[in-house]
Each structure stands twice: as C-alpha cells, then as structure tokens.
Amino acid sequence: MVTKARSRGADVGQCQQRHSREGKSKVLRARRHLPLSQRIETLSIHLVLLVCTVTTLVPFLWMVSTSLKTDRDLFRYPPRLIPNPITYERYPAAFRDLPLVRGLLNSAKIAVLSTAGTVLSSSLAGYAFAKIRFKLRQGIFGVFLATLMIPWQVTLIPLYVTFSRIGWVDTHLPLIVPKVLMNAYGVFLMKQFIQRIPDDYIESAQIDGANHARIFWSIILPLVEPPLITLGLFSFIGSWNSFLSPLIYLNTASKFTVQLVINTLRTVYYTEWGLLMAAATIAILPILALYSVAQRYFIQGITLSGLKG
After folding, report:
1. How many CA within 13 A on the CB side of residue 264?
2. Which of 81, 217, 222, 223 has the most crowded Cβ, counting Cβ within 10 A?
3. Which helix (H) or strand (E) is 201 found in, with range?
C-alpha cells in the first residue's frame, strides 16, 4: 500500500541520517591519524577558506557600519569600521522617507509566488524525467538543459517585446511566470535527487493502484525535502535580490520592489549613502533569517544532490 511505501521512504531518510552521522565520526577518527603533509595541506585549505570568508564578510560589515555612522564620519579618513559615535536615526528615517514597506511587500509577493511555483513545477518535471518512461525523454531533457547555456541577456529583448504585446509590462507577471515555467537548473537538481529513490517504492504503490499524482504527493515529496528547500532558497534569494528585471518591466512607483526603492536614493548629483546603507541592511534581513532557519536542510540538499545515484 501507499502507506507502506511512505513508511519505507521514512526508513530510507532515517538510514541516510544515520549513515551521515557514522560517516562524520569516521572522518574525525581518520583525521587524527593523518600524516604531517596532509595536515599541512588541510590547514592551508582552511586558511584560504578563512581569507575568502573574511573577504566576503567585509562588505556586509561595512554596509552595516556605514548605516550607523553620522554624516561627518561617512567620508572620514582614515575610515573606521566601528563607528563612534553610533547613530540609529537612519533606520526609522528609511521607513519614514521611503516607501520601504510597500517595496518589501512587493518583493515578498514576487519572491513567494515565484518560489512556490518554481518548487512545484521543477519537482513535477524532475519526477517525470527521472521515473516516467516516455518517448524522447532523454532528448527533451537534453534540449531543456541546453537552455542553461543561453545567456539571459540574449532573451531580454524578445521577452520584453512579447510581454509588451500581451500587456504584462508594468506588472509583476514578467517577474514571476518565466521563473515558474522555465527553470532548467531546478529541474536538473530535482531529477538528480529523485533518480536516487529506489523504483521499488513506486512499483509497490502502483501495484496497490496508486497513480503518478498519488505517488508524487505521498512518496516522492516527503523524500526530497532537502533539495526542495535548497531550490526554494535559491529561487527566493534570486527573486528577492533581482534588480535588472524589475528595472526593465516596472514603471509605476507603487509596484517597485525593495531594490528599486533603494535605488531611488541614488541621483545624478547626490547620493544619501547613510540612508541607502540602512535601507540595504533592512532589505537583507529577510534573507539572513530565512537562511538561518533552513541552513541545515540547505547544506544537506547540496550534499545529497551532488552524490552519484
């Protein structure tokens, strides 16, 4: 029955977690007996990663630091990473002087809808390519993956002309629909993971009379939670941070995303750097919160999807 297949799937997930923990303990024991040359090599790799981490964090720390500086300290030389004195006045000013709340809501609407649609469509297509036998399956999948090699800039003008003719310009639809209907990376990610699920679960469910829709919802989805969350994070972050697409398609200020709202602080003659950094810090907080909550699933999804099935 489908219930038995789901319980088997749950057992597979528990086995994967147990094997992961056992693998970590074996790695730790093996590291204690590494020769000196390998230890030096490992230490060198960690030092390089540490330098890359610091390089990545410095711009973020500088953004937060600038948002807390007074106008007199913004261009002080030599610059200070830790402001003195610290002022928080720009954060309430960002909500008072900018339509920041509306921009956040517009960005949330676009990101949530595009993420939900991307996760659903990619998982369905990934299941079809991985477990359903049909003619020209490999050829269609190859053509689908070939779209990854087409730069987004090449399709920019044709898409704009198409959306203009159907009346989608100055709406949020061009920012949602293409990501939902055409996400080759998401389909590839889900297919690679679903391929690792044994066919025995699907065959036993089919013997009990379950169709593909029931198998997908009751068996496949519970087993692909990590890659689903990984794909959802990628999609949400990409939609939230998108700047060029909203800049091209949106003309009305009330429909601006948070990125376009922040961009209004930059003019030809003057830029309010302190207020801009405060608004940018506020805009990045939802991404940090989301990643902090889903970090464990994100790392697990990246690790498992990279394994050979």
Report:
1. 16
2. 223
3. helix 199-207
User: What pLDDT digit, counting tens, does each position of 115-126 carry?
Assistant: 999 999 999 998
Say which CATH number the domain at 112 has. Answer: 1.10.3720.10
Q: What is the pLDDT of residues 186-236, one digit of tens each?
A: 888 888 888 888 888 888 888 888 888 888 888 888 888 888 888 898 899
Range of the domain at 266: 94-305
Looking at the 3D structure of the chain, how many domains does it have? Answer: 1
Q: Is 75 part of a structural domain of the chain? A: no
Return the SS3 of 294: helix
Q: Quick check: helix, strand or coil at residue 273?
A: helix
Of 244, 235, 137, 147, which is closest to residue 191 (Cα–Cα)?
Answer: 137
Q: Is 251 exposed, middle or buried (0-12, 13-18, 19+ CB in 10 A)?
A: exposed
Question: Does some domain include residue 170?
Answer: yes
pLDDT tens digits along 90-101: 899 989 888 999
CB-based burial label for 175 (10 Å; 0-12, 13-18, 19+): buried
Residue type, 265: L
What pTM was computed for the model?
Answer: 0.78
Burial profile 51-65: b = 16 or more Cβ within 10 angstroms, e = fewer: eeeeeeeeeeeeebb
Q: Is residue 81 part of a domain?
A: no
Angle of CA points 265, 269, 271, to nearest 5°: 30
| Cα 173 to Cα 180: distance, rounded to the nearest angstrom | 11
In a domain, 278, yes or no: yes
- Residue with tokens 């203009």, as numbered in its chain: 164
